[in-house]
């Protein structure tokens, strides 16, 4: 398999709920007016706490400094696993599960923090730019690694291979055990032809900027189950659109414009973290994805500024509760 380092230098940001009004114009521009911006990587995820916006440097220029905008200080690079020239796929597990053992676990062992963004089309593994040499060092035995520059792919090799157990010079630590929450929503992972985006503009603006969450209060960190949680994710990356929403939000969109897999799979969420997770802890994604990979269970994984979210098939609902013991 091949591992591609994408030609995007990314920023991870958060917009407060109360400050959204200050960013409505640039967000609408980034979503709907592709000919007015040079942004090629844009993802917006709403959770009860805030809006997480991941975007390339061109898109980041659209967000003006504000007390309502938090910016993680690092530059992040996107990695993508490719098999036979196409985004890696499997007749069995899909999503983060298929890369848990080959990518996620080895990076966790090398103390590399990752930020995950699963979409309808593929899975993006974001790593800090400063960790790139460690990433290449760690994964080059498993993958042919290429770096994309200006639409072309060039082979990458790490010549300075350390024989130490920790190639980045950090000691491996046992990951923290985080509480999980399992809301009752059922979610859909869908896509949309970019040419039909204007047809759903009014609905999308309403869902993103005006719809109230199922529960007005943020999720409690004390219970294992919630009735519902507000979660909506829109990604426009290199011309491909991905949407993640619950079935209630889905009913607001024209059924003939959104498409999903032939099985029409629905997903339940596992939300990881009782308190904001931060960006420095390593092994959180591996901790969740490893048992799923061992059981060949499909899962999508979306990191946000405060918490992580795994989506697991409703057919595997009973297995969600294995996370109570993590």
Structural class: alpha+beta
Q: Tell me the CATH superfamily.
A: VC0802-like
Described by its quaternary structure, the protein is: single chain
The tally of helices reads: 7
Give the tally of β-strands: 19
The percent range for strand residues is 25-35%
Assign the CATH architecture: 2-Layer Sandwich
The count of domains is 1
Approximate shape? globular
Write a concise keyword list for the protein shown above.
14-stranded mixed sheet; VC0802-like; Cytosolic arginine sensor for mTORC1 subunit 1; 7 helices; globular; alpha+beta; five-stranded mixed sheet; 326 residues; identical protein binding
Question: Can you characterise this structure?
Answer:
- There is one protein chain.
- This protein has 326 residues and is of the alpha+beta class.
- Helices cover 17% and strands 33% of the residues.
- Mean pLDDT is 86; it is low at 88-92, 160-166, 213-217 and 220-224.
- The chain has a single domain (1-84, 92-151, 175-211, 229-325), classed as VC0802-like, CATH 3.30.2130.10.
- The strands form 2 sheets. Strands 1, 2, 3, 4, 5, 6, 7, 8, 9, 10, 12, 14, 15 and 16 form a 14-stranded mixed β-sheet that branches. A 5-stranded mixed β-sheet has the order 13-11-17-19-18, covered by helices on one side.
- The protein has 7 helices and 19 strands.
- Helix 3 runs antiparallel to helix 7.
- Residues 9-69 form the CASTOR1 N-terminal domain.
- It comes from Sphaeramia orbicularis (orbiculate cardinalfish).
- It holds the Pfam family CASTOR1_ACT-like.
- It is found in: Cytoplasm, Cytosol.
């Amino acid at each position: 398999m091949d591992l591609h380092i994408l030609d995007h230098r990314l920023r991870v940001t958060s917009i407060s709920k109360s400050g959204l009004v200050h960013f409505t114009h640039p967000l609408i521009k980034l979503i709907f007016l592709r000919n007015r911006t040079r942004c090629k990587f844009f993802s917006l995820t709403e959770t009860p706490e805030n809006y997480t916006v991941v975007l390339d440097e061109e898109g980041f220029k659209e967000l003006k400094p504000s007390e309502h905008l938090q910016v993680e200080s690092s530059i992040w690079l996107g990695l993508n696993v490719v098999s036979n020239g196409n985004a890696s796929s499997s007749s069995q597990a899909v999503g983060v599960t298929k890369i848990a053992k080959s990518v996620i676990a080895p990076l966790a062992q090398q103390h590399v923090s990752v930020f995950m963004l699963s979409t309808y089309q593929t899975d993006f593994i974001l790593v800090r730019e400063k960790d790139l040499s460690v990433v290449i060092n760690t994964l080059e035995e498993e993958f042919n690694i290429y770096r994309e520059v200006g639409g072309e792919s060039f082979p990458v090799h790490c010549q300075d291979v350390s024989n130490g157990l920790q190639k980045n010079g950090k000691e491996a630590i046992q990951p923290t055990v985080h509480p999980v929450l399992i809301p009752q929503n059922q979610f859909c992972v869908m896509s949309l032809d970019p040419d039909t985006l204007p047809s759903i503009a009014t609905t999308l603006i309403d869902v993103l900027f005006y719809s109230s969450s199922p529960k007005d209060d943020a999720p409690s960190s004390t219970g294992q189950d919630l009735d519902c949680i507000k979660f909506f994710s829109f990604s426009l990356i290199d011309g491909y659109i991905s949407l993640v929403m619950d079935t209630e939000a889905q009913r607001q969109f024209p059924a003939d414009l959104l498409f999903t897999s032939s099985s029409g799979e629905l997903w339940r969420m596992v939300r990881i973290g009782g308190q904001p997770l931060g960006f420095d802890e390593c092994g959180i994604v591996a901790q969740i994805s490893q048992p799923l990979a061992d059981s060949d269970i499909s899962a999508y994984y979306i990191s946000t500024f405060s918490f992580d979210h795994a989506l697991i098939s409703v057919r595997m609902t009973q297995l969600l509760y294995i996370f109570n013991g993590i």
